[in-house]
Design goal:
alpha/beta; Rossmann fold; seven-stranded parallel beta sheet; 9 strands; 16% strand; binds NADP nicotinamide-adenine-dinucleotide phosphate
């Protein structure tokens, strides 16, 4: 376990789903989490569910200047940044011919451009602390699913970005971990998957624990892209 006690962890998308689960697991390991998202009420509720050491920055990371303001706010309040978990993201299905220019732009803005902007803004602070970055990518980066044109392209781009950051981070003492999960039971599936299918997906809490464990792994270990899946395909009804 090498994550220092009191480490400052910026968790985007920290108000819900995977981000909140990562924050819960990191808080349980004595990290001081800063939850970032657009909905102030969700962030407030999320911090109350944690241990009291967490704080929030309400920001739309796709808005110019907001990633930089987020990093500056955290540094002013906490003085350092040890971890950035990039979990903010969106998933909207449309087959390739139906992807409008607006849909494409929104998905890229949230899933890729905002990650790059926040990483750039936080790079120096992570370099100072010898910190770590986790990119919550997706299995869609490496496996094709129908209706995923924009999402898959954004997550494929994120994996490629993660590999470059992993190399460039080495010289600065920054470890970069890309996680490529298949289905996790979160709000992202609201209206997109029925309850029995969701019940067979991975639990967000388990994914959060895994992220915290990876961040705690011995720093002499370089961690390549990590793919995780539910133990069975959630869309296939098990044999009785
Ligand atoms: N669930 C899955 O099956 C699955 C599988 C593979 C990968 N993932 C990835 O996991 C990540 C988290 O998704 P989730 O499943 O936890 O779903 P979720 O609960 O919908 O989380 C998405 C989070 O992103 C935040 N967000 C969205 N747009 C934002 C913006 N412009 N600025 C700041 N924050 C923004 C949302 O907060 P606000 O709305 O308050 O801004 C929300 O907390 C995503 O990157 C997703 O692609 C999920």
């Amino acid at each position: 376990m090498t994550l220092p006690s009191g480490a400052v962890a910026v968790v985007t998308g920290g108000g819900s789903g995977v981000g909140l689960a990562c924050a819960a697991a990191l808080s349980a390991r004595d990290a001081r989490c800063v939850l970032v998202g657009r909905r102030d009420d969700r962030l407030q509720a999320a911090t109350e569910s944690l241990d009291g050491a967490a704080s929030i920055v309400a920001a739309d990371l796709t808005v110019e200047g907001e990633p930089e303001r987020t990093i500056q706010t955290v540094l002013a309040a906490r003085g350092r940044i040890d971890v950035i978990v990039h979990s903010a993201g969106m998933f909207d299905k449309a087959s390739a011919p139906d992807v409008t220019a607006d849909h494409w732009r929104r998905v890229m803005d949230v899933n890729l451009d905002a990650v790059m902007a926040l990483t750039r803004a936080g790079w120096e602070a992570l370099s100072d602390s010898g910190g770590q970055i986790v990119l919550i990518s997706s299995i869609a980066a490496v496996q094709a699913f129908e209706g995923n044109a924009a999402y898959a392209a954004s997550k494929g781009g994120l994996n490629a970005l993660g590999e470059v950051l992993r190399l460039e981070g080495r010289d600065r003492g920054i470890r970069v971990i890309t996680l490529c999960p298949a289905q996790i039971d979160t709000e992202l599936w609201d209206g997109k998957a029925p309850d029995p299918v969701r019940a067979r997906m991975m639990p967000a809490a388990g994914v959060g624990e895994l992220v915290a464990d990876l961040l705690g792994a011995d720093r002499r270990i370089d961690i390549g892209p990590v793919t995780i899946r539910p133990i069975q395909d959630p869309w296939v009804e098990p044999e009785p």
